[in-house]
Specification:
The structure holds 2 protein chains of 2 kinds.
Chain A: E1 8-19, E2 22-33, E3 37-41, H1 48-56, E4 61-70, E5 73-74, H2 80-86, E6 88-91, E7 98-102, H3 103-117, H4 125-138, E8 149-150, H5 156-170, E9 174-178, H6 186-199, E10 205-210, E11 223-228, E12 231-236, H7 239-247, H8 250-263
Parallel strand pairs in A: 3-10, 3-11, 6-9, 9-10
Antiparallel strand pairs in A: 1-2, 1-4, 4-5, 7-8, 11-12
Helix pairs in contact in A: 5-6
Chain B: H1 3-16, H2 28-43, H3 60-63, E1 68-69, H4 78-81, E2 91-96, E3 99-100, E4 114-117, H5 118-129, H6 143-150, E5 156-160, E6 170-176, E7 181-183, E8 186-191, E9 196-205, E10 212-221, E11 226-233, E12 240-249, E13 254-261, E14 266-275, E15 280-289, E16 294-303, E17 309-318, E18 323-332, E19 340-349, E20 355-364, E21 370-378, H7 382-389, H8 395-411, H9 417-434
Parallel strand pairs in B: 1-7, 2-6, 5-8, 6-9, 7-10, 8-10, 9-11, 10-12, 11-13, 12-14, 13-15, 14-16, 15-17, 16-18, 17-19, 18-20, 19-21
Antiparallel strand pairs in B: 2-3, 4-5
C-alpha cells in the first residue's frame, strides 16, 4: 500500500557492483517505503539476483560505488547476520539443504539468535514448537516438516514454503523474495503467495524479484520496476507487469535508449 | 640384516615377551592357533611407508616406544566407568586394559543369547566357534592381527542362536587405564541363521598417557542373519589404536556398520567384509580429528557371489594439522553378477594444514554389475555459510552448524538414541572447539 508520508525503509542510490571483476550493477536507484510491495522484473542476466544477494550481504559481490541505506543506517557496513538481525530477509531462489540438522532445531536456533539480538525473549523448545506450528498453518505445512533435515529431500515447493516460514518467524522489516515463484506448481504458488500477503503490513515492505508476471497475479505490487544491464530503466504500476507479459522486455530497452538519446 | 630390520625384529620380540605367561587353554586347537600366530609374528615385520597398504600412515613413532602387556590390573568401581554406559545396552562386557572385568560386566546367558568371556563360553560353544575364531581374520599376512592372536585369551564372545532376535543392544566396553601398556581386545560375534543382534564395540580411556590398543574383531553372519555393528573409537589423545575386523556375511544376511573415530594419536582400522549370494551390507564411517592426530580407515568389501548389495559412506572432518586416510576397496569377483555397490567418501578440511589421502579402489571382474563410487575433498561451501548468516547466525555459528551437520549425517545412522545423542554432543563440542 502506497502512503507518501510513510517512512523510507530502503534507499539505494547509484549502486555499482562487480563479481569476479565483471560489472553487474551499474548505478541502480531504488526507494522502498514501509507498507509497499515492489516487483523487480527483467530478463536473465539483468542483475536482479545479484541485487538481492548484495542487499543480504553476499561476500562474492564487490560493491564499487553508490550507497544503500536501511532505516537510516549504512547497510553495506553490516555483516550478513547483522543485516538479518536488523530486519533484512532474503528468501533464496535455491535454499540450501543441510542433511544432519533437524529443521525444527535449525528454525529455533535462527529464531532465538535473532530474538536475542533484538533484545527479546528466547523460546524454549516447547514454546517454540507451539509458535512454529502456528506459523506453519499459514503455509499449509504438515508438522512432519519439523522432523526432517533442513530442506533435505524437499520438493521445490516445500523448500519455498520453508523459506516463507522463516520469513514469518523472523518478522523482517524488508523481505526480498528472489524468484520465489520458480519451480512452484499453481497450488503451491497460491499457498506461498497467500502466506506472503498475510505477512505484508504497513510497517514492512516486500521486494519481489521475478522473471515472470505469474506471481504478481497473487501478490499485487504497488510498483513494478524493469531492470536491464544493471539498472532500473522503467518503473510503473502493476499494469506494467501485464504489459511486459504480453510484449516482452525488448521494447522497454528500446524506449529507454530513445529517451536517453533525446536527453543527450 | 639391516639396522632398521633389527630394530623391527627386536620390537616385535619385545612385544611377544609377555606371551609365554598366558595360561594354556583346555582347547588344543586354540593353543595351536596361538602357537601358529607366534610363528607368524616371527616371520612378519612391522609395516613401513614402503608397504602399499601403509604408504600414507607412518607408524614409526609406535615402534620407537616400548609397551608391555598389563602386569597388575587396576580394580575399577562402577562409579569410575558409569559415564561410558549406554542406557539401552543393559547387557555389557567390560575389559580393563584387555582383561575381562566380571564385576563390572553384566553377562547374559538367558534370553537365548550368550554374551560372555570366551573361557566361560568354551563348554557350550567350543564347536560352534572353532570355524571362526582366528579363521576370519587373515593374521598370516598381518603382523598386528598375528600379535593379537598370539595373545588370544580374554575375548568378548557373543553367540546368537538360530531365529533369535535380540532387542537389547550389547555393549562391549574396552577401557584403557595404564600407560605404556599394550592390550589385545578381541571379539567374536556369531549370529546363527535367522538371528539378529546389535553390538556396540567401544574403546575409551581413563588416562591421557601413551598406550597401545591392538584389537581384532571377527563377525560371522550365517544365512538370513542381521548384525548392527557400531564401533566407537574414543581412545586417549596419546594412544595408538590398531584394529582389524573381519566380517563374513553369508547368504541373504545383512551387516550394518557405523564406525566413528574421534580419539588416539594414531589410529588404523581395517574392515574386511565378505559378501555371499544376496547378502547386503552398509558400511559407514566418520573420522573427526584435529591437532596432530592421524586416523586411517582401510575397508575392503568383497562381492564374492552374485546379487549382493553394498553401500558405503565414509566421511572425515579434519582440523589442526591432522591427517586422515581412507582406502576403500570394492572387489567384484567374476562370479558376482548383478552386484549393486555404492561407495562415497567425503572429506571436510577445516584448516590449511589439515590433510587427507583418499583412495577409492574398484576392482571389477564380473560384467553385469552396478557400481558407483566417488570422493570429494573440500572446505565448507560459502553459499551454505551465507545462507545461515542470512538467517542471523554468526559466521562461526554457521560454520559450526555445517561442520556438525557433515558429521551428524553419519551419527544419525546409529540405531541407539542415547549413544547417538552422546556422539552428537561430542561432534558438537569438537567442531566448536576447532573453529
Amino acid at each position: 500500500m502506497i502512503h507518501q508520508d510513510s517512512k523510507v525503509l530502503l534507499e539505494v542510490s547509484g549502486l555499482c557492483a562487480n563479481v569476479n571483476g565483471t560489472e553487474i550493477l551499474k548505478g541502480l536507484n531504488l526507494t522502498v517505503r514501509s507498507g509497499e510491495i515492489h516487483a523487480i522484473m527483467g530478463p536473465n542476466g539483468s542483475g536482479k539476483s545479484t541485487f538481492s544477494k548484495i542487499l543480504a550481504g553476499h561476500s562474492a559481490y564487490e560493491v564499487t560505488g553508490g550507497t544503500v541505506m536501511f532505516e537510516g543506517q549504512d547497510l553495506l557496513e553490516l555483516a550478513p547476520e547483522e543485516r538479518a538481525r536488523a530486519g533484512v530477509f532474503l528468501a533464496f531462489q535455491y535454499p540450501i539443504e543441510i542433511p544432519g540438522v533437524g529443521n525444527s532445531q535449525f528454525l529455533r536456533l535462527t529464531y532465538n539468535t535473532v530474538q536475542t539480538h533484538r533484545g527479546k525473549e528466547e523460546l524454549d523448545p516447547l514454546e517454540f514448537d507451539d509458535f512454529v506450528r502456528e506459523k506453519m498453518k499459514l503455509l499449509e505445512m504438515s508438522p512432519d516438516f519439523l522432523e526432517r533435515s533442513v530442506n533435505e529431500g524437499f520438493s521445490g515447493g516445500e523448500k519455498k514454503r520453508n523459506e516463507i516460514l522463516q520469513m514469518a518467524m523472523l518478522d523482517p522489516r524488508l523481505a526480498i523474495l528472489d524468484e520465489t515463484d520458480s519451480g512452484l506448481d499453481i497450488d503451491a504458488l497460491r499457498v506461498v503467495a497467500g502466506g506472503v500477503n498475510q505477512l505484508a503490513n504497513k510497517d514492512n515492505a516486500i521486494v519481489l524479484v521475478t522473471h515472470y508476471q505469474r506471481l504478481l497475479n497473487y501478490i499485487v505490487p504497488d510498483y513494478v520496476h524493469v531492470m536491464e544491464a544493471g539498472r532500473i530503466i522503467k518503473t510503473g504500476g502493476k499494469e506494467l507487469a501485464l504489459e511486459l507479459e504480453s510484449r516482452g522486455y525488448d521494447w522497454v530497452g528500446v524506449e529507454h535508449k530513445a529517451a536517453m538519446g533525446a536527453q543527450a | 640384516m639391516s639396522a632398521s630390520a633389527t630394530v623391527n625384529a627386536s620390537y616385535l620380540e619385545n612385544l611377544l615377551a609377555g606371551q609365554p605367561h598366558l595360561p594354556a587353554s583346555p582347547l588344543a586347537w586354540l593353543n595351536a592357533l596361538r602357537a601358529e600366530a607366534v610363528d607368524r609374528v616371527g616371520a612378519l615385520t612391522v609395516p613401513t611407508l614402503r608397504d602399499e597398504e601403509w604408504r600414507f600412515t607412518d607408524i614409526s613413532m609406535l615402534t620407537k616406544m616400548s609397551f608391555h602387556p598389563v602386569r597388575t590390573t587396576i580394580s575399577l568401581q562402577v562409579a569410575d566407568i558409569e559415564r561410558f554406559y549406554i542406557e539401552e545396552a543393559t547387557t555389557r562386557l567390560v575389559f580393563v586394559d584387555g582383561v575381562y572385568a566380571p564385576q563390572l560386566s553384566s553377562a547374559a546367558t538367558d534370553h537365548g543369547i550368550s554374551v560372555l568371556n570366551l573361557e566361560a563360553g568354551f563348554a557350550a560353544h567350543a564347536a560352534a566357534i572353532e570355524p571362526y575364531l582366528g579363521r576370519l581374520t587373515e593374521f598370516h599376512n598381518n603382523v598386528f592381527a598375528a600379535l593379537n592372536t598370539a595373545f588370544l585369551h580374554d575375548t568378548a564372545l557373543i553367540v546368537v542362536p538360530r531365529d533369535i532376535s535380540v532387542k537389547v543392544p550389547v555393549h562391549l566396553l574396552f577401557i584403557a587405564t595404564q600407560k605404556d601398556v599394550v592390550s589385545y581386545p578381541r571379539c567374536l560375534i556369531l549370529a546363527e541363521s535367522g538371528s539378529a543382534v546389535t553390538v556396540i564395540e567401544d574403546y575409551v580411556s581413563l588416562q591421557e598417557d601413551a598406550y597401545f590398543t591392538n584389537a581384532v574383531t571377527e563377525i560371522a553372519l550365517v544365512d538370513n542373519a542381521r548384525v548392527n555393528h557400531i564401533r566407537v573409537q574414543r581412545e586417549g589423545a596419546k594412544a595408538f589404536h590398531i584394529a582389524n575386523c573381519a566380517v563374513s556375511v553369508a547368504r541373504a544376511s545383512n551387516y550394518q556398520s557405523v564406525s566413528v573415530a574421534f580419539g588416539a594419536r594414531i589410529s588404523r582400522y581395517n574392515l574386511n567384509v565378505k559378501l555371499a549370494e544376496g547378502a547386503e551390507c552398509a558400511v559407514d564411517g566418520l573420522a573427526l580429528i584435529s591437532g596432530r592426530q592421524l586416523a586411517d580407515t582401510h575397508t575392503c568389501i568383497d562381492h564374492a557371489k552374485p546379487q549382493a548389495i553394498s553401500n558405503q559412506m565414509h566421511k572425515c572432518i579434519v582440523g589442526g594439522s591432522a591427517h586422515a586416510v581412507f582406502n576403500g576397496k570394492v572387489m567384484v569377483r567374476q562370479d558376482a553378477q548383478r552386484t549393486d555397490s555404492k561407495q562415497s567418501n567425503r572429506n571436510l578440511l577445516l584448516t590449511s594444514k589439515a590433510h587427507v589421502d583418499t583412495k577409492p579402489q574398484l576392482e571389477i571382474f564380473a560384467d553385469d554389475v552396478k557400481c558407483t563410487h566417488g570422493a570429494t575433498i573440500g572446505q565448507l561451501d560459502d553459499e551454505e555459510v551465507f545462507y545461515l548468516q542470512s538467517r542471523g547466525l554468526s559466521d562461526t555459528a554457521a560454520r559450526n552448524m555445517l561442520t556438525y551437520a557433515f558429521g551428524a549425517e553419519i551419527i544419525e545412522r546409529i540405531p541407539i538414541s542415547s549413544l547417538k545423542y552422546q556422539l552428537e554432543q561430542t561432534v558438537l563440542e569438537q567442531t566448536s572447539a576447532q573453529l
